[in-house]
Write a structure and sequence with these properties.
Structural class: alpha/beta
Distance between the termini: 45 Å
Order of helices and strands: HEHHEHEHHEHEHHHEHEH
Helix content: 40-55%
Strand content: 5-15%
Largest sheet: 4 strands, parallel
Strand order of the largest sheet: 2-1-4-5
Number of helices: 12
Number of domains: 1
């Protein structure tokens, strides 16, 4: 294994060397660490034939969540896109596992879409989340997802110095998800799924950060008025994931995501 490469980064380099058929799946926080549309062109020059937005899978996640709420209108639900929260509940609060929404995460939903539309291609997921690696291998092994962080991707680019960074103004996503590009920000799921419009303030809550997450999970059984809990482990949402390269403030990271969302509005 090359020095300073994680096993996932080395696996990606091996796949690229073998010229395997690959689809890159970029989490919507990518704009914090990479420029658009340059990153799409760079990934394609690296060896990816298809580049997809994970926010496309988030659209399906929202549809599944709303279908669940419609089917069980009185059911209390804890959202499940965050694999760290899912594991916290499994390990520390197993009595709350019954409330976890049994639906696809944006990563798994995007991978399923790829398996359907591009059979024979391997989905490769890029995000700021270290625990997505466990979600891919433990929760969805049948989807054969290779999960890497943005730091991993930067290391792969460094190892493949011939993949120059240049202005790719015509590069574009092959699989697009516009309406859920705010997903990595705390409350992004609630905003894009309609929860903020369809439930009263006391019926839903948006929580991020390990301290607040732990507190709300302890209190959840006693807060019967709380129907929907939109919860992420990292402070401010996925924009604070440990696999992020950026050292910008949370407010600056958040603004980059919002600016990209606004700039791509039709």
């Amino acid at each position: 294994m090359a020095q300073n490469l994680t096993k996932e980064a080395q696996e990606l380099l091996d796949l690229l060397e073998k010229k395997e058929k690959l689809v890159a799946m970029l989490a919507p926080s990518f704009v914090i660490d990479f420029q658009y549309p340059e990153i799409v062109g760079r990934l394609k020059r690296l060896g990816f034939e298809i580049v997809a937005e994970i926010s496309r899978g988030a659209i399906d996640t929202n549809k599944q969540l709303n279908a669940l709420l419609k089917l069980h209108p009185g059911r209390r639900v804890i959202t499940s896109p965050c694999p760290t929260i899912v594991r916290l509940i499994r390990n520390k609060y197993p009595h709350l596992e019954q409330y976890l929404a049994k639906i696809d995460s944006p990563m798994s939903a995007t991978a399923k879409l790829i398996k359907k539309e591009y059979p024979g291609y391997k989905p490769v997921h890029f995000s700021p989340c270290m625990v997505k690696k466990l979600e891919a291998s433990e929760d969805f092994p049948e989807l054969d997802i290779l999960a890497l962080t943005y730091k991993d991707l930067a290391a792969v680019f460094h190892a493949k110095k011939n993949v120059a960074l240049k202005k790719d103004l015509k590069a574009k996503f092959d699989i697009v998800g516009e309406e859920t590009r705010l997903y990595p920000i705390s409350g992004g799921l609630a905003q894009s799924s309609g929860i903020t419009k369809n439930f009263t303030d006391e019926e839903y809550d948006v929580i991020s950060g390990p301290v607040l997450a732990d507190k709300i999970l302890k209190d959840f059984p006693h807060k019967s008025e709380l129907k929907i809990l939109d919860i992420l482990n990292c402070d401010g949402g996925c924009i604070a994931g440990p696999g992020m390269i950026s050292v910008d403030s949370l407010s600056r990271r958040r603004q980059k995501v919002v600016d990209f969302w606004k700039s791509q509005q039709k």
